Amino acid sequence: MRSERVIDISALNKSFGDFQVLKTVDLEVDLGERIVICGPSGSGKSTLIRCVNGLEQYDSGTLIVDGINLADPGGVDRVRSEVGMVFQQFNLFPHLSVLDNLTLGPMKARGLSRADAEALAMEYLERVRIPEQAKKRPRELSGGQQQRVAIARSLCMKPKIMLFDEPTSALDPEMISEVLDVMVELAEEGMTMLVVTHEMGFARKVADRMVFMDAGEIVETGTPSVVFDAPKSARFRAFLDKILQH
Amino acid sequence: MIRPFKVWALLFAVLFVTGCSGGGTWGWYVIDPSTEQGMSNVRFLVGGFWATIQLSLIAAAMSMMIGLLVALPGMSSNRWIRLPSRIYIEFIRAIPLLPMLFWVFYGLPVVMRSMGVPISIDAFWGAIITLAISDSAFTAEIYRAGIQSIPKGQTEAARTVGLSYTQTMRYVVLPQAIRRILPPLANQFIYIVKMSAFASVIGMQELTRRANELVVTEYRPLEIYTLLILEYLVLVLIISFFVRWLERKMGSDESR
Ligand SMILES: Nc1ncnc2c1ncn2[C@@H]1O[C@H](COP(=O)(O)OP(=O)(O)OP(=O)(O)O)[C@@H](O)[C@H]1O
Ligand SMILES: [Mg+2]
Question: Per the database entry, which stretches of residues form a coiled coil (chain B) (predicted)?
Fold first, then answer.
């Protein structure tokens, strides 16, 4: 089976003022692939995946998502309708009910009727196992529940690719697994995923490829089994030692 | 709420009593409703309420619209889109109301005529345009502060689920920002009401103008201007009562 390339990042550079966050980054992702990105704080992980859906602009290089060049006029808007994103801080809309959080995109951006959008939303709320919370406000939910709502909200747009930026870092330990379970299921269904996380158990379970970033560069990539057992670079080994310690 | 009102009431009660019993420096008869002339004078003065309210309400509504249109580009990440908004705010904020009023009333029609648009501006609309524009610089800043208080993650999440910029503002940012925007905006309305007194100088028959006209015929400035101040006091107290109520309502909304 020939695989379809859905993300093609080549020679991507980005600076904030004098500080170069991304240094000639190359990364290719095929349809259905699960990539886990890790690396020390400030290494540019968030910036990289935020470039993929146009939340950050890059300075040079090319970025093609699902055949659409982000630099093309209207490129960002078209890419965004294919790419879902889950944030560390959930970013649910506090003034709307859980259900309305989910239906907003489908109704306003996709033009679905309220009835259709609500049916769709309920379907995804069931997938993340919180249909009974539909009428509540986000702040009435636990962190784990909020993050699952955020995942469902992205899925309602039927994205081809899902980006996760440290989705469990803001959660209490006992809530991490309920979010990871949902993500594992999503991976098993064949969703293309780029996940920034330090949850190495999750990485082992679902990642097709690990990407280790440091100081704006991709230092090492490889399958989890290979990379974990025999990291090639000293920097990656040091990083793994540090996070696996606790 | 009730406290400043009591203080004022006491102050004026004292003024009134000393004025009536004193050595004839006060002449409350001009606005004594029990006499026919006094009643007609009071009617004439109070008749300015409607114009002042109309003036203030229309100017405030326009200021709110212009303010939003100025504030939104002012928050763009593109400095060339931001610049005109910045210039407008700094420029308008620097012009005192009275000179601007003269310029709009006497000057603007001339400018328009020379550009081939012969318009006439009466006192009513001259005053409204001036109040609205000069206030809009302040409402724009109120909007900006309110909108910028909403975390960036809200906009990012909205854009990620496919909403356009306008949809993001309309369905996500403004509904949240409005709670922080409305109380200062309502507060700003009090300024408009007070500033509307300047409309008197271009002949607008509102509260202050009527008081001035009556002073010319009756020659009792002390009593008439005292009543004038009381008129504004009543108006502003009603509005600030409403502002407090709004703040409480918004506040309890927030903590829900
Ligand atoms: N908007 C910005 N303006 C200036 N500097 C920024 C901005 N966003 C990020 N940076 C800087 O860029 C660097 C990389 O940031 P990024 O958020 O991509 O790192 P990260 O790998 O996701 O780190 P973390 O694990 O802490 O989330 C950091 O040093 C950060 O301070
Ligand atoms: Mg990050």
Answer: none
Domains and CATH numbers, chain A: 5-44+59-244 (3.40.50.300)
Could you tell me which of A151, A155, A186, A199 has the C-alpha nearest to residue A37?
Answer: A199
Give residue A204 CA to ligand 2 midpoint distance, Å.
21
Nearest to A195 by CA among A173, A146, A219, A162: A162
Tens digits of residue pLDDT in B160-188: 999 999 999 999 999 999 888 988 998 89
Residue B227 inside a domain? The answer is: yes
Please state the domain count of chain B: 1
Taking CA–CA distances from A53, the nearest residue in chain B reads: B160
Q: Does B118 touch chain A (CB under 8 A)?
A: no
CB A120 within 8 A of CB A181: no
Query: Measured between alpha carbons, how far is B46 from B180 in angstroms, rounded to an integer?
Result: 35
φ/ψ of A20, rounded to 5, equals -85, 115
Q: Provide the domain limits for residue B95.
A: 47-250
List CB contacts (< 8 A) between B163 and chain A: 104-105, 108-109
**φ and ψ of B71, to 5 deg:** -70, -40
Return the CATH number at B175: 1.10.3720.10
Q: Please tell me whether the interface predicted TM-score (ipTM) of this complex is above 0.90.
A: yes
Residues having C-beta closer than 5 Å to ion ligand 2: A 46
